[in-house]
Design brief:
This protein is α+β, with helices and mostly antiparallel strands. The protein has three domains: 1-285, Beta-Lactamase (2-Layer Sandwich), CATH 3.30.450.220; 324-375, no CATH class; 448-520 and 532-570, Heat Shock Protein 90 (2-Layer Sandwich), CATH 3.30.565.10. Helices cover 50% and strands 19% of the residues. The protein has helices spanning 3-67, 71-78, 86-96, 123-127, 132-138, 152-155, 185-192, 269-273, 277-320, 336-375, 377-396, 399-417, 425-443, 468-479, 512-520, 536-547; strands spanning 102-108, 113-117, 143-145, 160-167, 174-182, 201-206, 211-214, 239-244, 247-255, 261-268, 422-424, 447-452, 461-463, 486-495, 498-505, 552-557, 563-570. The protein has a five-stranded antiparallel beta sheet with strand order 2-1-5-4-3, sandwiched between helices. Strands 7-6-10-9-8 form a five-stranded antiparallel beta sheet. A five-stranded mixed beta sheet has the order 12-14-15-17-16. It starts with a helix and ends with a strand. Residues 344-371 form a coiled coil. It is found in: Cell membrane. This is Sensor histidine kinase. The chain crosses the membrane at residues 7-30.
């Protein structure tokens, strides 16, 4: 994937998507909160409505409770062929028509209509009513039937019916029936006072799903399917979302004090969601703005940045091919992309100059190599001369001169003829042995030496000429100054992944000041080192440059206790 697309994708991933997710989560959370808030509002409204309904119906029930116990009604129902007089009818009217909401009533015996007031319903028709069975099962308790379930809404004269069985005051035997018709204004007044949201509605529904009454006055008597009316309904919440009259709505329900009725509040979801439309719109606007910002950022910044990077990449490809052409800067923005181009141009120019410099140095190096090849005759001349001296010493029987010449020849072959910097450890020790053998002829019995190299370390590679300068330093600064015979010990030890070469002498030793003076003046034209040019500091620096830390020399000395110098080098296989 191209860098520009990666950056654009990262911006969309880190800005656009979080904005959309945040807006969606806020919208959903606010919508759920509005649903719960609306449900709580309607639940309280339903609770207040049911309280008012209970009070109003109880007021009617109190009137009928008092009336059915009066002698006028009790005596009229107990006598089968009793004929009501005008005064008795007036007395019954006074008992029941003393409430403004009661419009009419009917008083029935066991098998006939005894008396009615503006309610000419025969006994046979009364037994066909939907509420008759419930009245029989109620055993004297009042049974209510709303306009939507007693059929009065369909006939165009809606009434609220209370029906009850009249019992003998003393024996509690059934002696008749009382049916009271109440104006629907009673329900209308209660429901009209119920608090609802705009376009919301409150229903009074019976167990069969018929709408007994509702605030809007629409759909009374229609049958509906509400899940909370079913006996298997087990949800603990008192609200849910479902379709009502082909519109998605929030439905809140509350069982009424009347066991046969349930109050339900209907709120269209578009009314609730309208409260959260602003949040949804803000989320959409923020998402759109963030997406447009991403494309604008890509258009005016990323494209120029990627173009600068592509120019640098193409320039690097040209450099790889050996073409050093500066990158032209079309537009200056004075930012890091311009610094990148400027830096690349400077680097390209410097590399071109360095290449030219290296080519010049290579030419000089080849010329020096030619001179070195011409000078190789000198070592061969030295070896041939030493061979002639050795032959003359053997012919004259001088074995010491022969041994000294042989050691000097081997010493020169290792130090001069070996072009490689790394040599086997046993060859380095052999070089030291020949050097000490030559020095024995000079110092005679003034010193002795011991060399110990384990067989496991013989073939490991080491830097050339690192032990001989240490031994030479011990001879000139320790052994030469001693009156007693001196001793030099050289041994190699294994230390994990490293090797340690230990050079010991039994000389007078030296203090820190002497060591620092020797270390700092080692490169000067001292008498002892003027010819060799190699000392402790030289060996340490060469080891440190080639192998890095912690490789190099460790010097341990004290006046009167000799000196010990440790050379730490890594194990290098040939």
């Amino acid at each position: 994937m191209k860098l520009r697309r990666k950056i654009l994708f990262a911006i969309i991933l880190l800005v656009f998507i979080p904005v959309i997710v945040m807006g969606t989560v806020s919208y959903v959370h606010f919508s759920n909160a509005m649903e719960k808030k609306s449900s709580n509002f309607y639940w309280i409204s339903l609770l207040e409505t049911d309280r008012k309904l209970k009070f109003a119906l109880s007021e009617i029930s109190s009137i009928t409770n008092s009336a059915i116990t009066q002698p006028a009604i009790q005596q009229s129902l107990k006598q089968p062929d009793f004929v009501l007089t005008y005064d008795l009818k007036q007395e019954i009217n006074n008992l029941l028509i003393n409430h403004p909401m009661i419009t009419s009533f009917s008083l029935y015996g066991k098998d006939r209509m005894l008396y009615q007031y503006n309610a000419p319903m025969s006994f046979a028709d009364m037994k066909k009513q939907t509420w008759y069975g419930a009245m029989e099962r109620a055993e004297g308790r009042p049974v209510w039937s709303g306009p939507g379930e007693n059929g009065s809404e369909v006939s165009g004269h809606p009434v609220l019916v209370q029906a009850r069985v009249v019992k003998d005051y003393y024996s509690l035997e059934d002696i008749g029936y009382l049916v009271v018709y109440v104006k629907p204004d009673l329900l209308d007044q209660i429901f009209w006072e119920a608090a609802t949201l705009k376009k919301g509605d409150i229903l009074l529904v019976n167990k069969q799903g018929n709408i007994v009454f509702n605030k809007s006055g629409e759909h009374i008597g229609q049958r509906t399917e509400f899940p909370f009316l079913e006996s298997v309904y087990t949800k603990e919440q008192n609200y849910y979302i479902d379709n009502y009259q082909e519109e998605k709505s929030l439905i809140t329900f509350l069982p009424s004090h009347n066991a046969d009725w349930v109050l339900a509040a209907i709120t269209p979801m578009n009314l609730i969601s309208s409260e959260s439309v602003s949040i949804r719109n803000i989320a959409v606007i923020l998402g759109t703005v963030s997406l447009l910002s991403a494309f604008m950022f890509d258009r005016y910044f990323i494209r120029r940045l990627v173009r600068s990077i592509n120019s640098a990449v193409n320039g690097m490809k040209r450099v790889k091919q050996g073409i050093f052409i500066p990158i032209p800067a079309s537009h200056r923005a004075d930012d890091e992309s311009d610094l990148l181009i400027d830096g690349f141009n400077r680097m390209s120019t410097q590399i071109n100059e360095l290449i030219e410099q290296v080519q010049t140095e290579q030419a000089r190096k080849k010329e020096a190599e030619m001179q070195a090849l011409m000078a190789q005759i000198n070592p061969h001349f030295i070896y041939n001369s030493l061979e002639s001296i050795n032959s003359m010493a053997v012919l004259q029987g001088n074995k010491d001169i022969s041994k000294m010449v042989i050691s000097l020849g081997k010493l020169l072959r290792i130090s001069i003829s070996q072009n490689q910097e790394l040599i086997p450890l046993h060859m380095e020790f052999e070089h030291v042995r020949h050097y000490l053998d030559i020095q024995k002829f000079r110092f005679e019995d003034k010193f002795s030496y011991a060399i110990d190299i384990p067989g496991t370390l013989r073939t490991y590679m080491t830097q050339k000429l690192i032990v001989q300068p240490i031994v030479e330093n011990a001879l000139y600064h320790a052994i030469e100054q001693m009156e007693d015979p001196g001793f030099i010990s050289i041994e190699a030890q294994e230390c994990g992944t490293d090797m340690i070469i230990i050079v010991k002498d039994n000389g007078p030793g030296f203090d820190l000041a002497t060591l620092m003076s020797l270390w700092n003046k080692e490169r000067s034209n001292q008498k002892k080192y003027n010819d060799s040019g190699v000392g402790l500091k030289n060996v340490h620096e060469r080891l440190n440059i080639r192998f890095g830390n912690p490789y190099g020399l460790l010097v341990c000395s004290s006046p009167g206790f000799g000196s010990t110098i440790c050379i730490r080098i890594p194990k290098i296989l040939p």
